Amino acid sequence: MMIDALVTTKWLADHLNNSNVIVLDCTYHITSSKRDAKAEFLDRHIPCAQHFDIDTICDLNNPLPHMIPSVEIFSKEASNFGIDNDKIVVLYDTYGMYSAARVWWMFRLFGHDKVAVLDGGLPQWQAEGYLLETGLVKNRLLSNFNAIFRRELVKSCDEVLAVVNSGEGQIVDARPSARFTGEEVEPRQGMRSGHIPGSISIPSSEFIDKATMLSVNSNKLFMIFVNSGIDLSKPIIASCGSGVTACNIAISAFRLGYPDVAIYDGSWSEWGSRKDTPVEIGPAKIRCA
């Protein structure tokens, strides 16, 4: 059974009782929202889903938010969810396409390609009248997941700085345009405003059809990149506020047949808080492809 980067609510409903399919609620709320993703999960979630918390399945020794965990930690956590290397993993969140894309990227980073995001997430599932359940999943079966780290899918601050200094490469920023330009203050305290020099702005909201709240079709997706001056055939590094919405860029490129977009894991939480990284402010730049 093969799946794409996205699955529909009907596909998930049809396969919900398949023992080879594992469903994870990956909802994450920024701290300022004062929402509790775990409490919301216990209150309502897709049947048989388990809760994946990017703030606990991470490098807890790193002060930056939800930085990637070690291979050992990810393997252990995936195994605890009942996931092995043959399982199909379907991810969703309460926003439609937000932190689920981050977890999609994490599974690919750790060598698992049998992973997809539920298009439209929990809102679409509810809108179509599918059942929900409450509480923790019962009788969880442990498994054995062996992670294989794909180093090329993640970038460090030093690697991004080298790209900036070379004047080559493509860095795409998924934050809202006003944060990119520096007109809007960053939601996290201590952050400078602006963007990585030479980067291109593609707000992650552009990948969602405002009428349906589903992901845009592949033709429109391709034009978003083209109109922004992005050459999908060349290396791309995606960034955002803390490495979450940057993954919307990665999954969008993947849908078009370009699976190698790398994520700057520290993103603006790291770049904007350091004193030795260059920052630009002003209008989002569009380059000619």
Identify low-pLDDT runs. Answer: none
Large-scale geometry: globular
What is the structural class? alpha/beta
* Proportion of residues in helical segments: 25-40%
The CATH class label of the largest domain is: Alpha Beta
Looking at CATH, which topology of the largest domain would you report?
Answer: Oxidized Rhodanese, domain 1
Beta-strand content bin: 5-15%
Q: Which value, in Å, is the CA radius of gyration?
A: 18 Å
* Number of structurally distinct domains: 2
CATH superfamily placement of the largest domain:
Rhodanese-like domain
How confident overall, as mean pLDDT? 94
Strand order of the largest sheet: 1-5-4-2-3
Helical element count?
10
Separation, N- and C-terminal Cα atoms: 37 Å
CATH architecture of the largest domain: 3-Layer(aba) Sandwich
Total E-strand runs? 10
Q: Helix and strand succession?
A: EHEHEHEHEHEHEHEHEHEH
Catalytic activity: 2-oxo-3-sulfanylpropanoate + [thioredoxin]-dithiol = [thioredoxin]-disulfide + hydrogen sulfide + pyruvate + H(+)
GO cellular component, one term: cytoplasm
Protein name: Sulfurtransferase
GO molecular function, one term: 3-mercaptopyruvate sulfurtransferase activity
